[in-house]
Structures are given as C-alpha cells and as structure tokens.
Amino acid sequence: MLSLSLLKLISFLLCDLQAMKVVNTMKLKEEVDYEILYKKMEREVDQLTSEMERQQKVIRSEKMQMDKRLKESERSFHDLRMTSNMQIEVSFMVHCFVYEMQI
Predict the structure, then answer these.
(1) What pTM value is reported for the model?
(2) Coil, strand or helix: which one is 15?
(3) Minimal CA–CA distance to 63: which of 50, 55, 74?
(4) How far apart are CA 44 and CA 51, in angstroms?
(5) pLDDT 10s per residue in the chain (103 long)?
(6) Mapped to the 3 state alphabet, what secondary structure does 22-78 carry?
(7) DSSP code for 84
C-alpha cells in the first residue's frame, strides 16, 4: 500500500502536468462593425431566399411535367383498354357467328 506522502506527490505531479498544458494567449480587443455585419447577413439572406425560390420554381415545373405525363399515360391506358375491349367483343361476336353458321 502506498504511503500518504507518496500519494500526495503523485497527485501534485499530475496537477503540475495539467498546469503545464495550459497556454495563455493574449487576444486583442476586436472592434465589430455591426452595420457591415448586418449588410453581410442581409446579402446572405437575400441569396439564400433567391436560391430557395429558384428551387421551388424548379420543383413546381417538374411537378407540372409529371402531372402532364401522368394524365397522358392515363389517357393512353384508357384508350388501349377501350380498344382491347372492342377487339374482344368483335372476336366474341365473330366466334358466335361462326358457331351459329356451323349449326
């Protein structure tokens, strides 16, 4: 078991090592021009707002194109369905006619 004085020495050395890591730096007093900072932030907000509006415009345009393509596809599908149904009906009628002729 370590003696009390040895523990104090170890504790002191650890504290001393931590103190050696501390670095004091001097910092000059910085003057802030709030008007310039405000204008800079205002420009940045304007740029971000413009970019956001541009992106929203692109999104709206793409949505309109997708809606148009969807309507065209639905119309085409409906036309194809109608044509297919008509062909089935005609085929059925021909088949019935041929069957009746054989009887």
Answers:
(1) 0.49
(2) helix
(3) 55
(4) 11
(5) 557 677 777 887 887 778 777 777 777 777 888 999 999 999 999 999 999 999 999 999 999 999 999 999 999 999 999 999 899 888 888 888 777 777 6
(6) CCCCCCCCCCCCHHHHHHHHHHHHHHHHHHHHHHHHHHHHHHHHHHHHHHHHHHHHH
(7) H
Which of the 8 DSSP states describes residue 2?
-
Angle at 52 between CA 46 and CA 56, to 5 degrees: 145
Single-letter residue type at 23: V
Label residue 81 left, alpha or beta by phi (over 0 means left) and psi (-120 to 50 means alpha): alpha
